[in-house]
Every structure is written in C-alpha cells, then in structure tokens.
Design a protein that fits this description.
Order of helices and strands: EEEHEEEEEEEEEEEEEEEEEEEEE
Distance between the termini: 11 Å
Strand content: over 45%
Number of domains: 2
Radius of gyration: 21 Å
Number of strands: 24
Helix content: under 10%
Number of helices: 1
CATH topology of the largest domain: Jelly Rolls
CATH class of the largest domain: Mainly Beta
C-alpha cells in the first residue's frame, strides 16, 4: 500500500530572512536572496530581539512568499503595518509600495477584484533599528480589518513528489491532469517532477516491477507538489 508520510502543502508562507551587510542597502539584501528560511503561519510580528540566531534585529530583510486562497470572488483591500519598509505583491504585481521609511506605518492597497481560488503572494520587508514590526492583513467585509491567517495562506516549496521503499529497478509513473510523469531515481528514492504545477490535482500513482508487470496502482488521490509517500508491503 502507498502511505503519504508528509504533505507537500504547508500552511503559512515561506519566510526567507537575511542580514543587511555593512555598506549594503535593503535592496541589495533582497536581491542577494536571503538564506535563512522557515514557514511562518502568518505575518504578524513585533520584534525586540533578533528574529533568528544569525539574523540581527538592527539590520535585516525578510521575504514571505506562497499563495493566498481567496474564499469568494469579489473586492479585497490589503494592508501592511510595517516598521520600517515593506512591499506587497499579488499575482506578481505590486499593490503596496512603502519601502521608504515614513511616519505613516499602515499602508493600504487599492481595492482589488480577485477570483475565488489561489493567487500568488509575496511580501518584502526590511528593518533597521532596535525595534521591528510587520503585520499583513486584509479587508473583505466593509469596515472589518483582520490579519490574514494560515487558513488562507500556504506554500509548496517543492515541484516534485517523492516515493520511498521502491527498488531502483522498478518503474514509477504518475497519471495527472491528462499527463504521464515518470520517476527518476536519486539516492535510493523515486522522484517524480510535476513540472510547473503549484496546486493539488487528482492523479493515480502506478508502480511496475523490472519485468514491466504492475505491482501497485493507487485509486485517484489528491496530489500536492512536494508530497512524500512510502510504498509499504502488507503482511
């Protein structure tokens, strides 16, 4: 039987953190792709200490990226409450640009008409000084502001699925969205690239032995990029 041992979908956004080096600007630090990463369920922080052991509070940048799920088609207005600077993108378009420090900390986007379903989101932030704050929220009910929770945010860091417990002489394929994707074996695991897919799809996983005979075929299952499965024998 095939057992999912880890989901490729992670609630929250992928946060990348990095220090601003001496003589560098926040823009330089963003372009150098910060290396310290973690999944943050939501962006709602006040810092008086370093955000990470190798990232100093007095001079750092952060990038959060992933997807925001829009529950109903309609008009949405986003806000960022930042000390110091922040930029927010939806579907690769900048909707809030408050990169330069100002006394006005809360910045609102214009109303956006968004369709139901997932949309790309990216938030860039920099802090310089002994205090940092960043909050990401929205308004989709008249007069009601709220922090965007992990219920609506997710990320899929990988674009492949992995299956363990399969001899390298076997063949593994995934039938998904009308395509057949075949596994390559690396380091004792079967890795199946899913191309540019960024969301879940229903598919079937098939395993064949070295003679081409079918060993296992799953029912239709929900497959996320980054899923990890194990093929386990039934006694």
């Amino acid at each position: 039987m095939l057992v999912k041992i880890k989901s490729g979908r992670h609630d929250g956004l992928l946060g990348l953190y990095g220090r601003i080096c001496d003589g560098c600007s926040p823009e330089d630090a963003i372009e150098s792709s910060p290396k310290h990463e973690r999944i943050d369920p939501e962006v709602n922080f006040i810092w008086i200490d370093d955000p990470l052991p190798a990232v100093p509070l007095e001079s750092f940048v952060a990038i959060w990226s992933g997807y925001i799920y829009i529950p109903n088609s309609g008009s949405y207005r986003f806000f960022v409450d930042a000390d110091d600077g922040a930029r927010l993108y939806i579907d690769n378009k900048i909707i809030i640009d408050r990169w330069v420090n100002t006394e006005l900390r809360i910045a609102f986007s214009d109303p956006l008409e968004l369709s139901q379903g997932p949309h790309r989101i990216r938030l860039e932030y920099h802090n310089q000084g002994p205090f940092g704050k960043i909050r990401l929220g929205w308004s989709f009910r008249e007069g009601h502001l709220e922090i965007i929770s992990s219920r609506y945010l997710y990320t899929t860091p990988s674009r492949s699925i992995i299956i363990t417990g399969i001899p390298k002489t076997y063949r593994v394929v995934v039938a998904i969205d009308g395509e057949i994707r075949e596994a390559v074996f690396k380091g004792g695991i079967a890795m199946i690239p899913l191309g540019s897919r960024e969301n879940s799809s229903e598919g079937i996983i098939k395993v064949f032995d070295e003679n081409g005979d079918p060993v296992y075929m799953s029912p239709y299952i929900e497959i996320w990029p980054g899923d990890i499965y194990s093929l386990e024998a039934i006694e």
